[in-house]
Amino acid sequence: MNNRYYVIIGVLFCVIVAISGCTIPWTGSGTNGNNPPDVQGVTAASLTGPGTIIIEQGNNESIKVEGSDSDKSNLEIIKTGPSLEIISKASADVKIYLTVKDITALTISGPGIINATGKVEQLAITITGQGTVNAKDLSAQNAVVTVTGEGEALVNAVQTLVATVTGTGSIKYQGNPQVQQTVTGGGSVSKA
């Protein structure tokens, strides 16, 4: 009877955690190294540190990590609601392949790279540091791009682009959007 009580409490706890939408962390070490978290419903991705995230749109939402065992053990993936945060202390060789139905926000801090393809209505890109976001093959009706530092953003905007650069970074855009730009420092906003 005592064991049954603990099982019921354990099941209730798991249900409460699942319903609450709390943070689900994953570290690539140990036996779960090949089983990162479920990415269903993710619409925002961020990378802190070195590495490359390759994002494409698709109905079969998934994530796959490619790299050495050492790289995988130095990678933390945290899902909080629709946001996926990847914290990397791995080498620049680590690659994360992410397939999602929709992507609305890309954030990078540090020297990493995010490449994204597909078609979206709204897109927000934020770069802090030396990172690169290549979204030239991700067509966005409206895009808001902010670069602080030396980073580089390549974006494909159809209707509007709000571009802000602070520092020596750059924003290059494709398409013929209405552009509202603010540049502080030696940075630039230009048509690709």
Task: Characterise the protein shown here.
The chain has 192 residues and is mostly beta strands. The chain folds into two domains: 78 residues, no CATH class; 89 residues, Pectate Lyase C-like. Strands 1, 2, 3, 4, 5, 6, 7, 8, 9, 10, 11, 12, 13 and 14 form a 14-stranded mixed β-sheet that branches. Strand 5 and strand 6 form a beta hairpin.
| Count of all domains | 2
Level of helix content?
Answer: 10-25%
Percent of residues in beta strands?
over 45%
What CATH architecture of the largest domain would you give?
A: 3 Solenoid
Count of discrete alpha- or pi-helical segments spanning 4 or more residues: 2
Shape verdict? globular
Tally of extended strands?
Answer: 14
What kind of sheet is the major sheet? 14 strands, mixed
- Taking all residues together, what is the mean pLDDT? 87
